[in-house]
TrEMBL record:
Organism annotation: Anaerobacillus alkaliphilus
Binding site for NAD(+): G10, A11, G12, Q13, M14, G15, D33, E92, K97, S119, N143, K274
Residues of the site described as Important for catalytic activity: H140
Every 3-hydroxyacyl-CoA dehydrogenase NAD binding domain range: 5-183
Name recorded for this polypeptide: 3-hydroxybutyryl-CoA dehydrogenase
Length: 283
């Protein structure tokens, strides 16, 4: 199962980061989104990140140019007709992902692996819309993708060992560390991270401490690089709420109940860094 050509679907923060690390590892990459302007924005992010590496002396200009030359813009899923792997990083919506995977199943060669970067949707359910569930797998990258070492590699119910091993080996080529996980709500990363963030929000909601105080305790006391509320703003409060709801629905346990303050902020459009306001204000 040799992987040479990869399509990344979704040119947002995660998708562009994934495309960048794949191109830096020597893969040929198609960066796909539904509109040219979205792909252009993703390419702009990659350019900025690579230029920062050039400024720091970690990359030559020639290396930067060859990485950029390995990334081709795409606005049609049909461009996946000759890829070996697709990594889908589109919006976290089961209906949209199911539609994409059903189309990819028709378009891509029969040997191609179909991976999703979903943070909490069931891999097994996504795989079930295809006629190749053994070739469907989760590749959950962490934000910011170029910096974070982990890839949570999630086996769906039918994922084959051969496919798991191909993705494990590719993860090492991307200079990342794969960790094998089974398909249950929130996998491992978000099953543990999100209840901590939710509890931090309850701590503010119940007037125990200010957001600044909660973050300071966790940063200085637990050596976390960011406090949980800064991290929630960084991830996006809508994403945090969505994942909590997935955990709550998946396990049916009250311990995953999203904090009312989180719901209120999302309803107000306070989505964190990307909207300019969350637990903190950004300009
Ligand atoms: N893209 C690329 N590189 C970035 C970056 C970005 N968005 N943000 C920071 N960096 C790089 C910087 O260039 C810098 O590189 P060098 O060390 O090579 O110079 C390095 O990261 C450190 O950056 P800074 O010095 O500016 O800031 P920092 O030391 O505070 O680190 C951080 C920033 C890496 C984001 C750090 O705060 C951190 O690790 N935060 C926690 C991140 C985290 O928990 N991510 C997981 C989120 S959960 C998730 O993604 C899964 C999900 O499903 C929700």
């Amino acid at each position: 199962m040799e992987i040479k050509k990869v399509m990344v679907i979704g040119a947002g923060q995660m998708g562009s980061g994934i495309a960048q690390v794949c191109a830096q590892a020597g893969y040929e990459v198609l960066l796909n989104d539904i509109k040219d302007e979205f792909v252009d924005r993703g390419l702009g992010n990659i350019n900025k990140n690579l230029n920062r590496q050039v400024e720091k002396g970690r990359l030559t200009e020639a290396e930067r140019d060859s990485v950029l030359n390995r990334i081709i813009a795409s606005v049609q899923l049909e461009d996946a007709a000759d890829v070996d792997l697709v990594i889908e990083a589109a919006v976290e919506n089961m209906e949209i992902k199911s539609k994409i995977f059903a189309q990819l199943d028709e378009i891509t060669p029969s040997h191609a692996i179909l991976a999703t970067n979903t943070s909490s949707l069931p891999i097994t359910e996504i795989a079930a819309v295809t006629k190749r569930p053994e070739k469907v797998i989760g590749m959950h990258f962490m934000n910011p993708v170029p910096v974070m070492k982990l890839i949570e590699v999630i086996r769906g119910l039918a994922t084959s060992d051969e496919v798991y091993e191909a993705i494990e080996s590719m993860s090492h080529k991307l200079n990342k560390t794969p960790v094998e996980v089974n398909d249950f709500p929130g996998f491992v990363a978000n099953r543990i991270l999100m209840p901590m963030i939710n509890e931090a929000i309850y701590t503010v909601y119940e007037g125990v401490a200010t957001p600044e105080a909660v973050d300071e305790v966790m940063k200085l006391g637990m050596n976390h690089p960011m406090g949980p509320l800064t991290l929630a703003d960084f991830i996006g409060l809508d994403t945090c709420l969505y994942i909590m709801e997935t955990l709550h629905e998946g396990f049916g346990d009250d311990k995953y109940r999203p904090c009312p303050l989180l719901r209120k902020y999302v309803k107000a459009g306070w989505l964190g860094k990307k909207s300019g306001r969350g637990f903190y204000q950004y300009n």
